[in-house]
Amino acid sequence: MGWRLSQAQLFNGNQKVYVFPTRVKLENSDLGYTLIMDEPSGAVDIFNDRKKLRCRVPLNKFHSSVASTLSVAGECPAGLPWVKTSAPQPKDLANVPGTWYLATESKNLFAGSKYGGYLAGAKRVEHTRHMLFVSSAIEVAPPLNKIFCELQGEPRLGGFPLLQFSRIAENGRRTYWLQTTRADKVRFDQVDWKIPDYKEGSQLDVLTSKESKILEELF
């Protein structure tokens, strides 16, 4: 048995993720690509149904060639120290046991602008609290979890990331970096993992769509 997750990531958009112990499939409906990580074969296959293109990357080289480019959530506090904490179970994840983590508080200084407008005035400091919910009940090989975390801009804390948000203490505003709105247990079906016989393309061509220029600007 594995899991099917419905997720939204702040920069990458909406995605459906299938997670099994040795395989992970990510379908990104906004950027138009599908990514399949397979530990037994040691490969990552990426294809784009809109462009009818595909490419293959060795699993052990994926970080340097693709993941570093796709981690567009660079402002996400993945590099901060995290500690376990207690908080209510996320309502959309009632069926998934997990653990909450709290990151070291960060401070953002706004110095005021000499040009006027909303940035003008006295200096101010915003204190931000970062929360992350992960689940070790969703079993996946460490190399696959590592790549998935890098793709989403998430820290690796021993579980599969399901929810992360930041909250500014001064005004209570929340930013959701990663949200899982649904998690269902599913059986493995080989049909779901079929790789279409599309034309070989570059990683840039396969991973981007005409509607999004974010990844194109990063290459």
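Second entry:
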Amino acid sequence: MSNLALMACAAFLLMVTGSLAQTSGPVVNPLERYQESLKQSQLAPVLGVDQATVHRLLDIDRRYKAQKMQMLREMKDDLQRLRQLLNQPSPPEEEVRQLLNLMFQKRQNTLNLQQQQLQEEMAILTPVQQGRYLLFLISLRHQMANEARGLRGGPHAPGVRGIPVVQPSR
């Protein structure tokens, strides 16, 4: 396999594993439930919208989440197949090429879903609310990453970017 193909494969693997690490299944995961409850309780005051708008945003998120999760599951399966192929003494280059093309196409489809979701969400918000929403999502993503690291025993920084973490009294 050429160096360019190996580099492309490595870059793709980093993208896929990063996406898989950041996303899990339906809202049965405690971190996802926590994330949704934060959105439910904080979006209205942060954006200056009513609860109906918050519900519309959450509905859009739920609808796209299922589609993105399906795509990520397929990408994970493809990644496993790629590993199997590359572990062979003489990997079949054409099969690897076809699988890589399929994986890149699925990655692009995932990015398109994310873009469509963002466009739908932005369509129901004013420009100022859009800016606040974007900053809220970035902050929430950082907080969720820190929460996940904390659960795995890594460094943990509560109260990331202005979203306080309530510490239970002992």
